[in-house]
Amino acid sequence: MPKLVVINQGHHTTIQDLGRYHCSHIGLSQGGVSDLHAHCWGQKLLGNPSQNPSLEIVFGRIKLRAIGQVDCVLTGADCQAINATLGISLPQWQAFRLNDGDELHLSVPRRGLRTYLSVRGAFKLPSCLGSVATVERNQLGGLGEGKPLTVGDTLTIESNDQTKLIHTPQSVIPHYHSECLLRLIPTFQYQQLPAEVVQDILSSRYRISTNSNRMGIRLENSNTALSSSSNIGSIISEGIVCGAVQIPADGKPIILLQDRQTLGGYKKLGTVAFRDLPKLGQLKPGDHIRFQLTNLEVERQKQRAFYHFFEL
């Protein structure tokens, strides 16, 4: 079987798939890819099901060596990948081949944060609760201990030889920007806020904090009306979903992500629309976002179309 060997782990690289759904009742985080759009396209280009795992590479700089022949796709943030053995640049959002001994080197992305490496076939990994997704806080997934990849790790690939390689349509390749508009589906707790606070939320420009991770994105420079409102406070803890926008006591919003806790006692403004969740996976500290209200039924239709296209 072909393999990929880690010769430089880069900043932070984990193995991810669609995550562990239906495990919140036992206190486990969902996990899974941060940018579902990039992940699913990488798998589709290689003829794989979307459930297959990919490498989620944060801020590039990873180096891998192929043992045997490996067909790959890189999606997400562009890290100017090269085949260092041949000294040639490698494409993004389309398939390429690594031959035995070839080294794949990634640089730091110019825009965006996370790059996804998919391989034709699937990484051979131990599954836990129906997933191989790495969740470090739960010590689950990956090569077995819920840890990021490190030098010397070897990933065995179960090949799929019946695959036709294709290219990604230009129309679906995203352009990652440091300014991002997020569509927000309001909750009933949002409706309880005073009109001036609602207006302040929608007109505010938030900065991504350096204290952000796969659990959540923390926003800075939040509005004073929101933080001082008497309606902002704790509630009885309840289940929380990916994209939920919590308002803690300091009034600085937190957008919850894949590795979030399963319960939360802060009020929620709403939930980031499904089609904008991949944007969250590409935001890095210093980037800025704004919120815009959206219609629930419109967003449901967009989500159904995505699920249908990728057969989720």
UniProtKB/TrEMBL annotation:
What species is given as this protein's source?
Vibrio thalassae
Annotated Carboxyltransferase domain residues: 25-310
Q: Which InterPro entries match?
A: CT_A_B (IPR003778), Cyclophilin-like_dom_sf (IPR029000), PxpC (IPR052708)
- Keyword check for Repeat: no
- In the UniProt record, the signal sequence range is none
Q: Which UniProt keywords apply?
A: ATP-binding, Hydrolase, Nucleotide-binding
MF terms per GO, please?
Answer: ATP binding; hydrolase activity
Please state what the protein is called.
KipI antagonist
SUPFAM superfamilies recorded for this chain? Cyclophilin-like
Entries under Gene3D superfamilies matching the protein: Cyclophilin-like
- Tell me which stretches of the chain form a coiled coil: none
